[in-house]
Amino acid sequence: MLVSVIIPTYNRAGYIGSAVRSVLTQSFRDLELIVVDDGSTDATREILSGFDDKRLKAVYQENSGVAAARNLGLDLAGGRYVAFLDSDDFWLERKLEMQLAFMHKSGFCISQTQEAWIRKGKRVNPGHRHQKFAGWIFARSLKMCLVSPSCVLMHSDLVRQGFLFNESLPACEDYDLWLRISLSYPVGLLSRVLTVKQGGRGDQLSRSIIGLDLWRIQALLDILNGERLQPEKKALVLQALLEKSRVYIAGCQKRGRLEEAARIKQKLDSCLNQVNLRER
């Protein structure tokens, strides 16, 4: 039962080695590791070439963003299950073994593990707002992303159903995908810390892109326009969209970004008009 592990990376020469080693030393051995180098200009390629393991496949693309890198990995993946690992994170040795056993026993087609956080070399506790939940998590996930890519294991059937990362989003592409999946499927939670997330650096996507809520707004607009939503879920999406838009527009107006505030308001009004027309 092959598991395909996908690591997207960009200029993480100082971390990619430990991420790769944490996959290749898993107690579960039947895996392929696909590392997609998204146009790195540092020593990433040299570090990857130093691994002598036939299960590792390194591929290279021009810089296209993390969503495109993960999707390329998904296109190349041949496993029954797919797992993701960010290139600055790493797994504990039994991560795949224990998560596979959990999924076989529980019947979930997607699950995540608990995680430890390392910030600037020190272990910190995730805040209460980052608490993970199990089951039908769609409503809870609208406010913020509650699924960590490095913790995820999912059945490849989801990929064949079209659940891919949205390459038009430079950030929050994971928020978008987990929302779309959790509309149709419950998400399992293995309550064991098996993933270690390292952060606190300025080069991380979540820290280098200003105004992340802009991309969450876009994801919610796409869901409203592209998904057939039950009335109660549509109401939840609209509520989250209006609140995030209100905060984002107010922030733009406060900072004198009046054109951006007007642009988002226009997109919001257009979406709401389309929703109202469909309901008539």
TrEMBL record:
The keyword Glycoprotein does not apply. Signal peptide: none annotated. Gene3D superfamilies: Spore Coat Polysaccharide Biosynthesis Protein SpsA, Chain A. It comes from Desulfonatronospira thiodismutans ASO3-1. It holds the Pfam family Glycos_transf_2. GO terms for molecular function: hexosyltransferase activity. This is Glycosyl transferase family 2. Residues 4-135 form the Glycosyltransferase 2-like domain. Keywords: Transferase.
